[in-house]
Amino acid sequence: MLFVLATLVTLETPRVVLDVARNPATLELCGGDARIAFRLERPATVTVATEAGPLTARPDGREALPVRDLALDAGPHVLVVPGESLVQTVAVRTPFTVAAHGTSGDEATVTGSFEGEWRNRPVLQVGRTFVSGVDLLDGHLTLQVTDIELEGRHLALYLARTYSSAGRFFAGPGAPGWTMGYATRVTPFESCGLYVVTTMDGSSQTFRTAGGGALLTPQKGYHTELRRNGDGSFDFTDKSGTRHHFAPRDPLRTGFHRLDYIEEPHGDRVEVRYLPSGLVASVAEVHRPGAGIKEIVRTLDFGHVRNGDFDQVAWVEATGLGLRVDYRYDAYGNLVGVSRSDSERSSPKVDTYAYSTSDATDRHQIVTAVHEGTELSLRVDHDPLIVPGADATAIADVLGASFTDVGRVAG
After folding, report:
1. Where are the chain's structural domains?
2. Less Cβ crowding at N or C end of the chain, within 10 Å?
3. Whether CATH 3.30.1700.10 fits 9-117
4. Is pTM beyond 0.90 here?
């Protein structure tokens, strides 16, 4: 009888995301920890390396060490790579290999790549001047569209998306450059003492800590609050007193704290339910008319599709209300079409987008947008790493924007 051995090693994370933020006080880059997940079919020694040599990582929750000929048992494994060693991947993809040598002499090598995702990218920052969506300090373009909005008793149930030309390396559940409202999160950069809150409008706020205190200090110009709770969760409170609760995280599985619920001062909530994969399954407006009573008023249900390296939102539906939004993507993950349907309208409202797909260095910059029949011709040239506070006299060198009525893209 002939026995065929299964593949020795399987890489479960061929695209490893490295969270990157810029310290608004020092302008230094900070990197969050990255996670490489793989499975061994048989015991083996493993080496994980980039062109610069073997990586230093924490294997399966142990102390950090160079991953060179590391003996591991069969089964799943997670390597946590300290982010500060990879922070420059914000600008380029960095390939890595996982080489396994079995005890019976068999061997296999699989490849993946690190890619930086900009967590406090410029969007609509306090103190900036915008002209038709273009930031006159660093030249980035911002577009915002609301796909569904349902007014509530105290909290609205809505779905908005935001595009920033400074987010070319960002890949959320929407598409590169775009964020969806319920993708809000808290991302820790503990080696720098920073915590970045991605907010519902796609922008971000950066908080810092000194001495590990529970209450964190917001960046200059913001009047919000971020509190670290004893169970590892976080509460972000905006100026209206609305609290966003972020659940504790498992450091071996994820580098961020995901949104659990939003609660306004009267006690009404918007609650988020997730699939086992971590993708949003539904968002519900919840009232609590009495002790122990929970009334679900309205719900948005989400569907997803796998497109290359991206898990993307395929559709969102307001259950029982006849409202639905469908999303279409190209082979590069770009959002190229949005269709908003309403059972009370004879035809859907449609948005389409074209991108710089012929540019191999950056295939995710919007060049044309058509919002419900209004065409916007866009050209934005800028450096995504230009820092807040840069010399304004240099803007003429980095800002080149031609557009028609960009300000009308507001949903």
Report:
1. 9-117, 119-408
2. N
3. no
4. no
